[in-house]
Specification:
By secondary structure, the protein is mainly α. Among the domains are: 81-186 and 246-264, no CATH class; 194-237. The chain is 80% helix and 0% strand. It has ten helices and no strands. It has helices at residues 6-9, 12-40, 49-95, 101-123, 128-155, 160-184, 189-208, 216-236, 247-254, 257-262. Helix 4 runs antiparallel to helix 5. The two termini are 47 Å apart. 22% of the residues are buried.
Length: 264
Amino acid sequence: MMALSLFKDLPAVLLEVTMCLLIIAFYLFGHWLCLRLIKQNPDYVNKELGAISGTLLGLLGLLLAFTFGMANSRYDDRRKLIVAEANDISTVILRTDIYPDSIAHLLKEKLKAYEVARINFYAAGIDKEKTKRYFLEADSISKEIWHTASNYAKKDPITTKSAELIPALNAMIDITTTRREAGEANIPDSIMYFLLVLCCCSAFLLGYGNHTKVDWVMLAGFTIMLSITVLTIVDLDRPRSGMINMDSTNKYMIELRQMFNQSK
């Protein structure tokens, strides 16, 4: 059984609230510690605080940019793979027309079931049991399609038909593994935890450097913007849930259903 991941499995709202509370808590703790030290020693001044805060905030900005770029790059890769799979399936559907009607009809029936299973694979969302079931279902149907096509190739003395269909069928099958791997390739938890630690440390140093009363407007703005940025990165890295998803791209898979009516 896979361990619960803070950044992959927790609901977005709970993650956002947790981030906000942690940032505020570390800021207030730093502010409290600063006032306590000043109370003990009114002349207390940390001359290195500005340099340390600037370095840490710069590192935080760099890591935010790095993780955002990583998440965005993987999001684009996943979108491209959906389009590529839709193209591979459409190519196979079209090339079945070069076969005799009996074989073509059999292939199209299995391709139709295969395409439904692949659509359901995405529609299952974050339900791991369903995604596994639909992936295995599609895999089983693809083996049947391959078996039908390969058996015909052995009997047909003219290899032209098979030379057209077999490579396209092979590409259609192979891309399922590529797409599954891309969907599971998330930003490593170690990077996300390091980002969380940097957020908390930055908030602590900002509070520690404040010798006056807490500016709640500034604190609220800093907290909200930082937590929303992290949430956006996490949302990009969750291809099956959240506000940033693949629904608009997955329509190309759904539109393939029309080809079964148009193809003769």
